[in-house]
Amino acid sequence: MPIATAGAVMVGADAVQSAVRRAAQMIPPLWPLEGTVAVNPFLGMSGEPLAIAAARLRRTAGICVTLPRHVYRERIRSGEITDVDLAAATTVAPTWAAPVRVAELKAAAETDRGLPVPLATVADLAAQACGIDWPALVTDRISHWAAGYFDRGQALWAAPRGRHAYESWRAAAEHDLTPEIAGLDGFCTFAARLPESADAAIANAVVRLGLRATALEVYFHRLLTTLGGWAQFARYLSWQAELNGAVDGTLRDLLAIRLTWEVALLCQYGNAIGDGWRTAATAYAEPIAPTRDDVLDALLQEAAERAAQRQLLAALRTPTPAPPPVRPAVQMVFCIDVRSEVFRRALESLDPAIETLGFAGFFGLGVVHRRFASDVDELRLPALLSPSLRSCAGAGNDAERSDTAARIAARAHRAWGRFKLAAVSSFAFVEAMGPTYIGKLLRDAMGWSGTAPQRDPPPRFVPALDVSAGTALALQVLRAMSLTERFARLVVFTGHGANVVNNPHASALHCGACGGYSGEVNARLLASLLNDGAVRAALAQRGVEIPDDTLFLAALHDTTTDEVTLYDADTPISEHAADIARLRCWLQQAALLARGERALRMPRAACDADVLRRARDWAEVRPEWGLAGCQAFIAAPRARTAGLNLAGRAFLHDYDWRADAGFDVLRLILTAPVVVASWISLQYYGSTVAPNLFGAGNKLLHNVTGGLGVVEGSGGPLRAGLPWQSVHDGERLVHEPLRLAVLIEAPREAIAGVLARYPEVRALFDNRWLHLFALDGTGRPVWRYAGALEWSSWDTELHDVLPQHEPVW
What number of other Cβ atoms are within 10 A of residue 196's Cβ? Predict the structure, then answer.
């Protein structure tokens, strides 16, 4: 029987489906481990400010979206956050809230808030009534089924394929005795009598739970958050389907599954929890409304961000002269990744003839790639984009023979691995073969083993690009890089990756712009394209003249060790042998400098040798810091930041607006690299302020499940986001959660014009998930974006409050 709630009315099918869609949009996608990319955990909330998101997530997940107040209190007392920062924060208080004064903000910082409590589910109320931890048991049973259903090749006995998720779960639930053993009488019979479709099950649950239409979105969102990464992986499946113009209903199926558990528990415990559930159902129907404390917390976070911005902007206020128009000896194009900033600065310090540039690490090539001896399609491009090109490794008879041999060896290796794990042979295997692994265990324990850079044969486009298509692609990429003149003798496209051992999240350390893979494939493809004589001749006819003695090379920067692999064998030209030898020497010297700087941030590291060791240590939970510390995105000529120590905190994208006719490149920067950087920044933010929901937990307890993600211990929900060890060194946070400051050297009218054309991007700035500044023609910060396509003068914010100490940037 349904539980009547005050004012309950029959809910139409359209209202139910609309609520399902809106709740699904609140769930961020989770990419599988082989190609992990950073995801903005607040993705569905970019249309509302932080205070409203705080109110929403307090009710649906029981989390805070800002740091504990004692952190702000300590920074105010130390002077890191000044009264000017607090006063500036009060100016962006929401118009629907009562005015906030600096004194009130300071008083709020002195008063700690308790942990938020989410709205109750039926499982929560049933647990209170009988003492059985039903929320944990429900999550465990769904997770147990999901690990088999979503398995990507890890399980020896995976769930049958061909069924929708709801149908598969229902078939399994009819035979799952665990709920009945735990105390849920007749669950198998209940499961057998459920509606056959997920839509019907959701509609049935809404009626039996007595829910009003206004309660559905928040309630559905609440249930999906209890499923953790399983819901997020289902959202990934729908994300991929949407990119291809299709629809995937897996997330809807998971919601139906979770709802049926609520109905089953209400059937058994309805008499004991009826009043409590009616109260909860009414609370779900109430509109999302931030409290005064939500507003104050958002403004304290704003003040912390103003303090960090003040130091960065002050460092940029000294105009930098343009470099003399001489030809550099080498130009190295790095990914905009913050880890590249450290290496670029070290490399540039060695010789004024070295020039570096920043560009998104997929180098403008959205490719689906197949590696050597592989049938797996790797999406080596940003998650926001759909691929337009295909590539594969190797060509010719020799490559084909090697490919066949490698495939045979791989099959034998997989068969051997399955034999070791099979139920019948595993115990005998350990008895007979265990001692032979002593050597491997010793090598791993001593850090003598490791992984080497990928040495696949050179990649090629499939099908090959004709001259017209290749020229158009090359021209587009070079213009986007602002690299159309002053070509050096060596131009090196430098992708990046991270070679680590025993790390399920290794792909999270690779290139996010390459879909969680290392960037050498895209770099090698672009270098090959620009070395093509026919393409270069066609480029010259279109105004981009590349000198005959310019050689394009590809390289791979290992961000864990700062070693750089050159793929100079792809295009062997003896005339450049001396140039390449000198470049290798420079790269080795830069690596020493960069490792020395990184060692200062790493726990238990005193020198560059310690940094090298971490990459080979199978017990190292912090082989590197990844993008921890990211705080700013700067799109401007390199001259504006050259020589400035940005401490590995800034994404650096080369951009010259004077060469950007029609501001097409500006549009690309704001709609692609800036958005990707915001995903990275907000993933680190969410994993720091709300690790229980948006973080992956403790690396020491991780087990890979289904080949797609990790769980803590032996089961439970899939964990998404960053492990705690990626943002914390064991004693303190190493990532300061700050929403990204985006600084662009371009006319503010042009920037506003792009925002007006792309409301989804504009929403990120209007709702302050990102901060935006316009730099003048000398790289000085002049304008701050105030929202609603309006700007305010940053000079008027300064007055006489420039920092009295040396900026940390």
Answer: 9
| Nearest by Cα to 252 from 194, 202, 192, 191 | 202
Read off the tokens for 413: 């290796």
Phi-psi map region of 482: left, alpha, beta (phi>0 left; psi -120 to 50 alpha): left
**In angstroms, rounded to a whole number, what is the distance separating the alpha carbons of residues 724 and 624?**
13
Looking at the DSSP bridge assignments, the partners of residue 332 are: 356, 492
For residue 549, count other CB atoms closer than 10 A to its CB.
Answer: 13
Contact 708, 218 (CB under 8 A): no
Q: Is the model's pTM score more than 0.85? A: yes
Angle 287-291-294 from CA coordinates, rounded to 5°:
115
DSSP 428: H
Give the pLDDT score at 419: 47
Q: Residue 372 contacts by C-beta under 8 Å, 6 or more apart in sequence? A: 393, 394, 399, 402, 403, 406, 456, 457
What is the C-alpha separation between 202 and 436, in angstroms, rounded? 55
Q: Which of 71, 101, 106, 84 is nearest to 310 (CA)?
A: 84
* Encoded tokens for 290: 């931030």
* Cα–Cα separations (whole angstroms), residue 667 to 80, 607, 740, 752: 35, 42, 18, 10
pLDDT per residue over 178-231, tens digit each?
999 999 999 999 999 999 999 999 999 999 999 999 999 999 999 999 999 999
- CB crowding 349-382: b at 16 or more within 10 Å, else e: eeeeebbbbbbbbbbbbbbbbbbbbbeeebbbbb
Tens of pLDDT, residues 450-476 = 555 567 899 999 999 999 999 999 999
The per-residue pLDDT for 422 is: 47
Query: φ and ψ at 199, to 5 degrees?
Result: -60, -45
- Under 8 Å between Cβ of 695 and 721: yes
pLDDT at res. 465 = 97
pLDDT of residue 428: 59
Structure tokens at 441: 């265990």
Residues belonging to the chain: 809
Q: Which of 79, 26, 31 is nearest to 216 (CA)?
A: 26
SS3 435: helix
What is the DSSP code string of 273-332?
A: HHHHHHHHHHHHTSPP---HHHHHHHHHHHHHHHHHHHHHHHHT-S--PPPPSPPPSEEE
8 Å CB contact between 6 and 206: no
